[in-house]
Amino acid sequence: MQLHISPSMRSITISRSASIGNNINSVTNGSIDLMKIKVAARHISYRTIFHTFLLLAFLFPFLFILTALVTLEGVDKCSSLDCLGRRIGPGFLRRSDDSGRLFGDFYKILNQVSTEKLPDGLLLPDSFDQLVSGLKSKQYDVKTFAFMLRGTMEKFEREIKESKFSELLNKHFAASAIPKGIHCLSLRLTDEYSSNAHARKQLPSPELLPLLSDNSYHHFVLSTDNILAASVVVTSTVQSSLIPEKIVFHIITDKKTYAGMHSWFALNPIPAIIEVKGLHQFDWLTRENVPVLEAVENHKGIRDYYHGNHIVGSNLSETTPHKFASKLQARSPRYISLLNHIRIYLPEMFPNLNKAVFLDDDIVVQRDLSPLWDIDLKAKNLDPNECAWAYGMNIFDLRAWRKKNIRDIYHFWLKEVIILSQT
């Protein structure tokens, strides 16, 4: 028996030697073919090739990513089982996700360090980059990292709060300071007072001097060192009045502003009677007669309270920006200025007047104020349960103030407050 394979590998023939007289179906070179198999050529379809390439295109990126992860992570930090899991996939080896457990442990540590004191000597980073750099170089444990995170957050919170308070403080100073234009106006008017005779003319004119103590006129008192503000108050009052010729304005200012204030109203006449006087022209307004002046000169605590640093010594953690802004307003240096306390001395400053309307320099009058002189003030006393009143516009019964001796009562309580603040 013979096995014959064709050179083209397409047919296989099994045969044996032929015998005489046998009925043979096929004889070839004295051999009888027992079996002949032809193998047909197999062709691969384009569809199969396309699907194969599609499968490889899907698998190759996945294998590349797994290989890159293992390479980047490093052999030392990747166990063989873990790396195998990364190659094959987390679902195959039933690998669990540890992120939930890690977050729970870290949350417990954060709760723990929130009630503990920060370690002494703990260096807090000034930025996120410093924090990351420190973690890489010093290999902090989780608890130390939690302390650093807490300390850094508290540090930034304090800095933000201090920055907010500094902003409020700067706004307060900007609002209370004298703008450059107004300051220059005062200087120019002062120069005008020294060089221009018209700026020094008497206010009011000599023939009108008796009207300064005439109670049939409407007397307004304005105490300010702001020239433009005084001009607004006086002008708006006169323009809103139905009888401006009956108005008498007594403007009181300090020594440094007197020349400029006098020049302004001398050079800009208003259809009313205007008197400008400086505090230095009242001889009896001395530190012996005015306790607030003595307190400011002698008591350092009062000077620091109004003129010192409003942030140093303040417990910023126990206050809010709104409360801090209110305290800044209350601690304005103008509250210890004699111009702010001058209303207490009106009966002595104008001994011949029976009634006067005191106006602040931050108002604009929009209607006639003549009816104020028709008000009966006998039953309009201040509420004894109140410790202050609104300063915008006040009507003073000067005769009643003299009878009650308001000035001495004010001096008594002011001295008591000063003594109490020193203890």
Automatic annotation (TrEMBL):
GO terms for cellular component: Golgi membrane. InterPro entries: GAUT, Glyco_trans_8, Nucleotide-diphossugar_trans. It comes from the Eukaryota. Gene3D superfamilies: Spore Coat Polysaccharide Biosynthesis Protein SpsA, Chain A. The keyword Transmembrane helix applies. Keywords: Cell wall biogenesis/degradation, Glycosyltransferase, Golgi apparatus, Membrane, Transferase, Transmembrane, Transmembrane helix. It is found in: Golgi apparatus membrane. The keyword Transmembrane helix applies. Its EC number is 2.4.1.-. Pathway: Glycan metabolism; pectin biosynthesis. The chain crosses the membrane at residues 52-72. It is a single-pass type II membrane protein. GO terms for biological process: cell wall organization; pectin biosynthetic process. GO terms for molecular function: polygalacturonate 4-alpha-galacturonosyltransferase activity. Belongs to the glycosyltransferase 8 family. This is Hexosyltransferase. It comes from Kalanchoe fedtschenkoi.
